[in-house]
Amino acid sequence: LAPAVPALSRIQTQQDQQHTRQTLLQGLLAPQARICPKFLYDEQGCALYNAICNLAEYYPTRTEAGIFNRYRNEIARKLPRGCQWVDLGCGDGAKAFEWLMHVNATRYVGVDIASDWLQNTLQSGAKRFPEIEFIGIVTDFTKPLKLDRVIASAEEMTPVLFYPGSSIGNFEPEAALSLLQAMRMHLGRDGKLLIGVDTPKDTKLLEAAYDDALGVTAAFNRNVLRAVNRELGSDFDPRGFAHRAVFNATHSRVEMHLVSLREQLVHLESQARHFAVGEYIVTEHSYKYSTERFTELLSLAGFGRIDHFSDETGGFNVFLASP
Ligand code: AVJ
After folding, report:
1. How remote is the CA of residue 282 from the centroid of ligand 1, in Å?
2. Which residues line ligand 1 (CB under 6 A)?
3. 0.90 cut: is pTM over it?
């Protein structure tokens, strides 16, 4: 029996695209230049990110997998049977696929901005789990409202929202709160949120995780300039910028920068941006939350029941939250 071809839909209107470009342009022209981290994940960027996850220095993926493996049964017992498993930022789906059998999932909903990857993920998932319905949605959820279109009604099928990898850390805290609130609203009575969150730790460890010896993260960061060139038709030269990762303890976040190595002028649509030597673009904030701070954020977002699971060193947390 051949598995059904998974349905893939895009919730990106022309207006969204316009707005995305406008925001990108605005960020690049601002006194402190910035690029939204979602542009890191074009096809090349996804491949580099997957390579990052296997680096010795990048502990989050490994540590989270350890927690999932260790507590799989305990967590699965607390999850609803026959759920729709909503995989937010699914990538290759590998993390989610480990769960589907344990919860008797009825439907898998893959959500990602990288459409090429999503199609492959759905196809391999449908092959591996022929009894589960696979659907995919190409979108980013920088706007919480988009979740409306992503999650089928909770009355119809109880949702498990799966948001691993500490991707929540890419949002500014206020935006993270609104996103968690939006998630909470979509859970109905019995839905659950399973989310991985990185913790603050020794600066050296944090900075090494975001500036590895092989330069994979540097390539990942500089690749964003190519994605921007494609989006805006601009003329960034990736060789003109150096990767830098710093832990900002005041804000409890790792910052990725692209530092201009020379004085240069970059053309952006009909405008141009001048960069002095040492001037930089912020490409990513990766917020780190202590157990207490993230528990507080979840309760502010309206979650009533919050469990968490950690590794021995407290280097990473997995939260299971219910309305
Ligand atoms: C995918 C957002 C969780 O912030 O650790 C990895 C992205 N950036 N190395 C992170 C990332 C640099 C990653 N997230």
Report:
1. 14
2. 52, 60, 165-167, 169-170, 210, 217, 284, 286
3. yes
